[in-house]
Write a structure and sequence with these properties.
Length: 86
């Protein structure tokens, strides 16, 4: 399975939803909390081109935010991306 990284914040309900979907699919992920961490927030913005959380990466592919993750799931593309090159 591809590695998954999610930049998140403790107060963000969209982060919670995204993590719940990944957990439901038994996907291990690395969470990078950007609360009070300007270095990590800057890294997130440079990698994604976005300022909001969550920002989700599967391997080197920037998925986007929570809505983007759920759209991939609804389209049946999330599992394919998670298992790419396996």
């Amino acid at each position: 399975m591809m590695s998954v990284t999610i930049y998140s914040s403790d107060w963000c309900p969209f982060c919670t939803r995204a993590k719940m979907l990944l957990g439901h699919k038994n996907v291990d992920f690395t969470e990078i909390n950007v609360d009070n961490n300007p270095t990590q927030r800057q890294e997130m913005m440079e990698r994604s081109g976005r300022r909001t959380v969550p920002q989700i990466f599967i391997g080197d592919t920037h998925v986007g935010g929570c809505d983007d993750l759920f759209a991939l799931e609804q389209q049946g593309k999330l599992d394919t991306l998670l298992h790419k090159n396996q």
